[in-house]
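Hi P.,

Sorry for the delay on this. The queue was packed all week, but I finally got your sequence through. Input first:
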Amino acid sequence: MQDFRVKTFLTVCQTLNYTRAAEELALTQPAVSQHITYLEREYGAKLFAYHHKKLELTRAGRVLRDALATMAHDDKLLHERIAEVAHGAAIPLRIGMTLTAGEYVVAAPLVRYLADHPEIQATVRSGGTKRLLELLRGGEIDCAFVEGLYDKSAFAGDTFRTEPLVCICAAGHRFARRPVQLEDLLGERLILREPGSGSRDVLVHALAKRNLTPEAFADTCVVESLDIIKIFVAGDLGISFVYEAAIQRELAEGSLRVLPLEHEPIDHDISFVRLPHSIFEAELAALFDGLRA
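Then the structure:
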């Protein structure tokens, strides 16, 4: 059973604001402060501190948050599992997926898995890597498939699949001279995903290894939808970097082409991420193995 002070602590972790946490919990702000003070005395360490007038977790606070987040998630899942055993309710499974990972990598095997396990009632949520990790830490989803970077000290993760990030242009796009290196593309307009997107993080990381940023390109255009990015590129509005799995249809149709650049391939893992040390690790491992089968 989750202690009410733990719920208060995790809510403050999410909001980083005592007033907002009090509103969400229907408590007074002094009550929220008392709960945090109790936990600080219990663990003998400051859990929050102000930096430039902004509330931040201390190192001790981050350690406690990661541990209690798993416990809170397991407590919620235990209630649902016990209800299933007692009343024959469906087994809930809450999965998060980044858009590319979900639509082009995970969706098809998930369909097969759910067809073989009719007792599971699945809820699937989409979003950027950062948002899904927040939902995972908050106990709102049980696991997530993400293509972005994540803190391996705070989350457990396994590689579901490794995907190449390729540069694409319109099939009929003409370059001033044939691009050979990534640097040969800097005169082009770069169409990229929004901040917080996993594929954007991977691209920015790859560019940084060459001492480049998206701003090094002649122009940039930010688009939140992968489908719209593909339409823009096919319409010769610019170039982009996308996962190869996401453009198979367009390559077959001939509306897009991949530029074979001579640089270190940009490969990145689609990761299966969950909270560490969960008592439900065996069930989540079964899901992972089932989707990869």
